[in-house]
Specification:
By secondary structure, the chain is mainly α. The chain has ten helices and no strands. Helix 4 packs antiparallel against helix 10. 30% of the residues are buried.
Length: 198
């Protein structure tokens, strides 16, 4: 049962992650950037909603799209269930890890969309940021001191995702992922709020 998880489903999830790296920026690139370009951004800012409600509404819309993609990705293990038995708990924790990773991408990419008027620039910035967060894990391998290595291990997405792929939900991993999401949603809200006062 462990062999099918690592040999089949982990490869499937790595492909889903690769799709998310390029798909989530495509979903978020027009969220705020296109509104600025079409001048509907000013109308949105003068509406009776706060900047936090604007950002959270757009963020949860992207999360809904990521959730639909995760459901489509879950169809593969569902059909595999007819042919072989495996541990559902292990698989669902791994899918939860990829979903939370998609939520991190959504928060970072929405922030990129808030920084520019060009949807293409927002897309390129978001893809670069999505790829760059994976290179933080390389710091674990090249770090000399134990303190530096511990810092890189804590801020590495690889470390936290690897634990969830193995079926372990760790509190420090969840706190880290939700902290990154909260940070980028907060930064996006600050960018939108600063536009309101210009």
């Amino acid at each position: 049962m462990m062999n099918i998880h690592y040999a089949v489903f982990v490869r499937h999830l790595s492909m889903v992650n690769l799709i998310l790296i390029f798909l989530v920026p495509a979903l978020t690139m027009r969220m705020i950037a296109e509104e600025r370009k079409l001048r509907t951004y000013d109308l949105l800012l003068t509406s009776p909603v706060t900047s936090a409600e604007i950002v959270l509404g757009k963020y949860f819309a992207v999360i809904g799209a990521v959730g639909c993609l995760m459901f489509v990705a879950l169809l593969y293990p569902l059909t595999t269930r007819f042919f072989v038995a495996f541990q559902w708990g292990l698989l669902l924790v791994a899918f939860l890890g990829i979903f939370l990773l998609g939520a991190v991408y959504a928060a970072m990419n929405l922030f990129c969309s808030a920084l520019t008027e060009s949807a293409l620039v927002a897309y390129v910035m978001a893809v670069i940021l999505n790829i760059a967060v994976w290179f933080v894990g390389i710091g674990v391998e090249i770090a000399d001191g134990s303190l530096v290595r511990q810092i890189f291990e804590h801020i590495s997405l690889n470390t936290h995702l690897a634990a969830m792929i193995e079926g372990a939900i760790r509190t420090n991993g969840l706190v880290f992922l939700f902290s990154v999401i909260a940070l980028f949603v907060f930064l996006t809200e600050r960018v939108v709020e600063s536009s309101r006062w210009r």
